[in-house]
Amino acid sequence: MITTLFFDLDDTLLTNSMERFLPAYFQQLGEHFAGWPNADRLTPALLTATRAAVANTDPARTLLAVFSECFSETLGWPESEWQPHFAGFYATRYPALQALTQPVPAAQPLLAWAAAQGLDIAITTNPLFTRDAVEQRLAWAGLSGFDFALVTDLANSHFAKPRPEYYAEALAALGRRPEQALVVGNDWNNDILAAAAAGLRTFWITPAGESRLPPEPAAPLAWVEALPLGHGTLAEFDAWARRALLSVPEDSPPDGPAVNGAALPFLLTGSLAALHGTVADWPAAAWARRPAPGEWSLTEIVCHLRDVEREVNLPRLHAVVEQDNPFLAGADTDPWAIERNYAAQSGPQALADFSRSRQETIAYLRRQPAATWQRTARHAIFGPTLLVEIAGWMLDHDRLHLAQVHTTRATVAV
To answer: Which CATH topology does 261-411 take?
Structure first.
C-alpha cells in the first residue's frame, strides 16, 4: 500500500510561476551583490552553475558541492565570501518575492488529512535552492507547521529533476520501496516521467478545467511510458485521495519483483547516493563506534556492503546474464566481519571501494537489453528466479543496511 506522498512544491502546493519568479529573483540577487567584482556576470554564472548541478551524475557529490565549485570558478569569488552573502540575501531580500506567489487553498487541508491517516509526507521540490529558500516557500504556502519526512534541497541531494535517480535517492533516504510512494506534481517531465522511470506511481496536477494531453517527452526520458493514476487540480487530487488512495493496490504480488528492470539501475544508484548523504558528516572517530557489543560499527557495515557487492552481487549478475539458467549458491556473509577483521579497516576507503563496485554493477545492468531482465536462474534457497528479482534482492539488502546505518548514527550520537 501507499505509505508516503511525494509532493512537488512550485505550482503544485504553491502557485509560483517560474516565468515570473526567476527574473525577479535574479534582479533582487543582482542588487544584493552590486559592487562585487564581475557582478555583471552574476546571472550567467548562476545559470551555468545550476546547469552543472542538474547534469551531475556522481552519487558521492551533492548538488551544493557541484554548484559551489562551478560558481566560484566562473566568477572568481571565494566560496567562503559569497556563501554568507547569499545567506544574507535569503534573510533580507528573498522574502519580498512572496508577493509573486499564492497559497493553493487545498494544500493545507490535504496535507493535514494525509498526516492524520499516518502517511509520511515528503517535499520533493527540484533541489536547486538552499534549505532556507525552500522553507520560506513552504511558509508562503501555509505549510511551515508540518513535520515532513524529507525536504529535498541543494545540500542534501545528489541529483536534480528530471533524473530518475532524484526520486530513487528520496526513496532510499526514507527506506521506501517504489510501490509504497506516490508522486504528486505538475511538471510532466520533471515529476511524472522522472518518477515513472524510477518505478513510482504518480498523480499529475493540471490547471482547473483543462483536459490536457501529455507533452512530447523530452530526452533522456523519451522511452518512459507514464500512466498517472489520475490528473486534475490539487483539490481534485484531494478528493481522489480521500476516496481511493488508501485502497490503491501494490503493482506486484507480495512475492514478486516490485519494479520493472528498467528502474533498477536508477534505484541502485539512489541507494548509493543515500548512503553517501547519510555518512558524509560522520567524524572520523565515530566510524569505529559500535552501538552495542556484538553490533556492527559504520566501518563494519560499509565493509560488508563492499564485499557483498564485489563477491556476491556482481558474480551473480554476470552468471545470470552470461549463462543459461545458472545455479546460484547461497552466501553466508555475516561471519566475514570477524574473519576479515572489518573493525581494523578504513571505513572511508571501504565506502570508496563499495561506490566503485556499485557503479560497475549499475553500468553493467544498464548495458543489458530489456529482455535480459527475464533471464532465469536457480537459487539454492529461493529456487527458480529471474534477474529482475535478483536485482530486487540487492535493493532489499541496501534498505536493510541503510536502516542499520541510521540506527547506528542515532545510537552513537553522530
So the answer is: Four Helix Bundle (Hemerythrin (Met), subunit A) (1.20.120)
pLDDT (tens digit per residue) in 265-301: 999 999 999 999 999 999 999 999 999 999 999 999 9
Domain locations along the chain: 4-15+101-247, 18-99, 261-411
Contact 163, 273 (CB under 8 A): no
User: With contact defined as beta carbons under 8 Å apart, do 152 and 159 qualify?
Assistant: no
The structure's pTM equals: 0.95
The answer to whether 269 and 167 are in contact (CB under 8 A) is: no
Check whether domain 4-15+101-247 has CATH 3.40.50.1000, yes or no: yes
Neighbours of 118 (CB within 10 A): 8
Query: What sign for the dihedral angle of Cα 248, 226, 240, 148?
Result: positive
Burial letters 71-87, b for 16+ CB under 10 A, else e: bbebbebeeeebbeebe
Of 218, 176, 220, whose CA–CA distance to 199 is shortest? Answer: 176
* Locus of grid cell 572489518: 342
Alpha carbon of 53 to those of 90, 274, 277: distances in Å?
20, 17, 16
